[in-house]
User: Fold this.
Amino acid sequence: MNDKALQAETGLFRKNGAPIPLQGVEVHGDVAGRGAKVRVRQQFHNAEKKPIEAVYKFPLPESAALCGFRAFVDDRKIEGRIEERKKAFEIYDNALSEGHGAQLLDEERPNLFTLSVGNIKPGSTVVIEIDYVALLDTDGPGVRFYLPTTISPRYTPAHQKDQDGIPVADIVNPPVALSVPYGLKLTVDVHGAGGISSIGSPSHAVSTEFCDGKAVVSFASETAAMDRDFILNISYKQGFSTRGLVFEGPGESFVQIDLMPEAESAGGRGKGPAASREMVFVLDCSGSMAGPSIAEAKKALEILIKALDPGTLFNIYRFGSKYERLFAESRAYDEKTMKAALDYLETIDADLGGTEMLAPLQEIYGARLPGNHFRDIVLITDGQFSDEASIMDLAKRHADRTALHAVGIGSGPNEFLIKGLARVSGGASAMIAPNERIEPKVLRLFKKVVDGPVRNVRIAWDGKVDQAPGEVVAFLGQGTSIFAHLKAGSGANARVRITGDTRSGARSWEVSLEPVHGELPIPLLWAREKIREIEEGRSMAAGSRQQERRQEKSRQEIIAISRQYGIVSSETSYVGIEKRADADRSTEEMELRKVPAMLTAGWGGVSSSGVDQGAAVFCRLMNPSADMLFEEKDHNLKLSLLQDDTWGSGGISESGHAYDTMKGPFYSIQSFMKKALPTRRAAQGEDLLLALLSCQQATGGFIVAGSLLKKAGLAELRDMAEKISIKNKGDKVMLLVTLAVLLVLEMRFEARRGEWESVVMKSRAWLKAEMERAQPTIENQPLEPWLRDYLAKDSGLKQPA
Amino acid sequence: MKKTLDIMTVDCHNRAMKEKKYTIDELAELTGFPRRTIRYYVQEGLIEPPAGRGRGGFYYDSHLERLRLIKAYQEKGIRTSAIVAMLKEGAPADEPIPPRNVVIRYEIAPGIELSVSREREISDPSTILEIIRIAKTIAQGKVKDE
Assistant:
């Protein structure tokens, strides 16, 4: 086999015979607490005889403040500079026309960039270096380091206009390939390793070593395929608390407030009684969701529906090229409507083609909302939609009475759309990678929905400040950062008071501002937040002169901040010129080489593992041989439990001992996908909490089948029910079981309160009413203290592993 | 097709002697297309590459006319992707094809539909939504009464 044939076989060449110029991507991240500083290096090589222009579209986290761009052409270093987007292109284009080398980095979306490396000479190598800083998502005591690696094909809706005469599809979508010759190398240094309680990646097999007070995380294999987001979950021994930091510059200072409103225990209701709430679930059933994504999304929905309060108005929508709904209009939640919803869920699949998201959302937003009602929309999607602006505009316009909560599913969801929708509508968001357990994350999101946001967050500043974001969206138990630019000098050690309203009433937090120096780039983070706020605050509606003037003003403001702080924006680009001596200049027409992106793993149900590129559907099933805990014929126990996943894969134990594990194998199981609701069963001793939560009935009472009670060591409950005396007629078994479940949750699952608390609110209400009515006793004692004692003495439910 | 290309090449040579030449900047100014867009059209084969050596070459009136034609199509509401298909497949390009009148249909109730032109919907979505809402209320009210 000659070289070329070999290379073609290994995927080094594209189908048309031209080699792919991108050779590899290397990423190094430094994580300290809630912040990360990241350097991305992309190496290009021209193996052809003619000069080439390489164009590479790649994703970054949507919160990234992209603050550095340079190129190394062979060994020559070229520092990029920020220019207005149009001008940057002209500078780049002029340089190429004159035979010089040039590099251009454009932001197409906050999480999608186009890199053009022009006039790479034959045999020459160009390394592009990109720096960014970002704040990590915090949830409870943990942070999440997130790095997207590929761009999933995004659906361009029929209504979306071309951009300057260029089809949007060509702007956001790179060519895709099932395999590519380049891969990703990665290291992440997590500083302050002593404070880490656990660290692990649900997306990749990683190894972790400890040295010099750092945890150094890298891939277990040398390179990883760029077909899925990289996620690193880090938990710290000490949870985060609200803090304030200040960076002093000459004549100005920048403040960062990390607000961490502590979770509140269950009590009152977020927005009045359940009857004044409408919940609309919207499920993306487009082709890109086929495969594991739709199965996971349905699972998440099932849990949410079971947890609804009786009387809540609710509905389910699903969409693709067209859309449909469960009920013509939202209905009150009861046993019957719950059953209808679960039955409906069983029948649906990702078979609706395109991703026409706008129409169903317009209908939902346009539907009548009774006067005192507040609407929550829970959207579950991979967000592969190119018209983010229209949807965000719709959500923003209705934010006063409707919150949109978005759940991003899959190996490469569109983070900008997911988080952006939540941000502009005062909703919550969650990103769920394929190997992560869905239920705990969805239940925590649901708690946020039920709790509602912390409203009217205000900071009492001294003097004139430019705060970003101006309107703060914060949730209990979740970190939110607020930045401010103080025109006048010192704010160091000053105390700042933050106030806000939660459902339990007015709350306040007071922090003193600790000075920081170079270690935290607060000015950059402020600038990024400020730019985002202007970008998202811009109205879509075109037309009037006044609006045009306002838009132009916003544009100029973005350009000014972007230039001053050296970060890229929608209106500015980085450009670098490699000036060449006359003899070196090449004005020959160069060949355009678009770098194909690797198809996202699981995209549209297609495996990109390269194992089978045929029609077989692949699904990752972590523990196929796990013991069956539940019998399928028992309807109440038709659980959608996940297997214990790879949360800890390649992680470290608390003792700090490093170990590697491999990810679970792929199983080709077409039949698995065909089942309406793939029901993965829990292995024995596994998540009993979720098993129990799934036994909740529409009223709030629990019916737990004997087999589960037995497995859980609670078999005696059945006999116990015989001994109970009650005042009025009632279901003794349900009363006892519900009481037992609620006690067990508190006694055994305190650490996971965030997952179950909102789910059992209606159970508490039901139980309270039943207890008052029936006044149950056992052995002449009131039932509750008796059962509490019994459970405390007896093993009862086994502790979660 | 081959023949046409040959003729065009000859034609280009002849014209090069007497015709006006444009730089990409001039072309951008005359057509209103950003330079980025013109480069994109060259890449996609929607217009011929510039004459002369490489990227720094110049453009003729034929380029200008072609770009103006594309612009005219776009102003009629035809998407660039459709224009690419049309021009590359050699569809008659003299007369801009009138754009399809895009109408969105909303189902108010079984058997009742509301048609809204795309233009109207984009320019005034809140009014349209309000009309749909009221229409639905009326339709549903009837159902409820029964």
